[in-house]
Amino acid sequence: MKMYSTHLIALLSLILFSCGKEKKDNKVEVVAKNQKPNIIYILADDLGYGDLGCYGQEKIETPNLDRLASRGIKFTQHYSGAAVCAPARSSLLTGQHTGHTPIRGNRELNQEGQVPLPAASITIPELLKKEGYATAAFGKWGLGFNEGDPNNQGFDEFFGYNCQRLAHRYYPPYLNHNQEQVTLPGNDWTHKNTYAPDVIQQKTLGFIESNKDNPFFLYVPLVLPHAELISPNDSIYAKYKGKFEEIPYTSEDKYASDYGPDIIKKRYSPQDQPYATYATMVTRLDAYVGQIVEKVEDMGIAENTIIMFASDNGPHNAGGANPVFFNSAAGLRGIKRDLYEGGIRSPFIVIWPNHIKEGTVSNHVSAFWDVMPTLTDLVGAEEPTNSDGISMLPTLLGKGNQKEHDYLYWEFNVKGGRKAIRKGNWKAVWYNINKKQQGEIELYNLDEDMSESNDIAEKHPELVEEFRNLMKISSTSSKLFPFE
Question: Is 316 helix (H, G, I), strand (E, B) or coil?
Fold first, then answer.
């Protein structure tokens, strides 16, 4: 194989990847064993647990992620940090569940900007920078400007949407590059020429190429398939156009076609084929993941790069999306904003060639707040004492003793107030906590009732009381996100 040039080997690797075949043992480059691994964490936006083929999806094609799962480890009981985007991201980056992490909801301060992640927060990129990592984030931030700005939270470079409101638009007039606004050619509040996710993807691939010779942490919070539903009329869309019996999303719907600077998020474009468009956006997301993997292989750093993929919460039903039609929650109860399984269970796939065994399926119960201790364990960094997480590295590597959570906890202070606990196979869900007519704690045995359809609280009053007490002690008070 030495007679071939590096470029030819890279080309052959790309051909094999695109054909869905396993790569040979030939390596483009041998990375020194003592070099710290590169880390790429890819986060989809509102992608359901069942939206990927490797998790049971039958209507949408996701070949790259399916292959990723076959090349590494697929988790079946991994959870997001929250049922909506901002607290999920806060939980991920701070290693804390929503009873402790600073941002616990999607509260917005003004037309463009969320409550900022406090300056005192300790984040994954801050910890990795101390270990010599270059850090970057490309996609949707959603954790505020000023002290919450990604550049002030450990990221050397940021490109994308700082504001999660603006991230509802796929043809915005501009994106943020660190502290500057970058105009997107041909876009204003009515004309759609430059598809923002494509621009962000090119920046992502460029970062990998520029940093191939030094350890890096790359956070890729994609905006797909978050509403609104819109996509370029390209070959991916052609695959799904006319394929489904559609229910058009029209101007009579709650979110209509009024598209302007004063209404960034509250109204979406009408869509004649919302099902086809949603499927296109998922497949496009899948293509982005494939391009990232290809770039890593092309740069010869695959063996020294760990890639993680997850979704920030359950599937959405906005802009014409229909999670029932696609079975996006894979039979689980609930969608985005729910603390039932469908709202918080996330696909989670990890690959690391020659370190993680191919084709592994794990039922280890884990959550977003486990990512920080896993990465600090991976690189030998010191983990903050206030983290709620447990390192998953023994499960990833298939060796050592894997610690287990005593229980997992979630809270959501809107929609009447919601809390949930998972302990072993038991799941307690409490809705309408803050309403005058307070709801009752529901109890489910996930081992026997994964769809949470059979409330057995009356049969186990002692467990209900135990979970009620756990819900009380698992949360610190928050002035920004009060639970009273």
Answer: coil
Q: How many CB atoms lie within 10 A of CB 130?
A: 12
Q: Residues of the chain with pLDDT > 70: what percent?
A: 89
Q: Quickly list DSSP for 436-454.
A: SS---EEEEETTT-TT---
Tokens coding 144: 């505020």
Other CB atoms closer than 10 Å to residue 182's CB: what's the count? 14
**Residue 93 CA, distance from chain mean position:** 12
pTM of the model: 0.91
Residue 184 tokens read as 């997107």
* 386 Rama sector, left if φ>0, alpha if ψ -120 to 50, beta otherwise: alpha
Pairing mode of beta strands 38-44, 216-221: parallel
pLDDT per residue as tens digits for the range 189-241: 888 999 999 999 999 999 999 999 999 999 999 999 999 999 999 999 999 99
Give yes or no for residue 359 having a pLDDT over 80: yes
User: What pLDDT band is residue 17 in, cutting at 50, 70 and 90?
Assistant: very low
Which bin fits 337, alpha (ψ -120 to 50), beta or left (φ > 0)?
left
Distance CA(372)–CA(351), nearest Å, equals: 17
Buried b (16+ CB within 10 A) or exposed e, 203-223: bbbebbeebbeebbbbbbbbb
Q: How many CB atoms lie under 10 A from the CB of residue 173?
A: 18
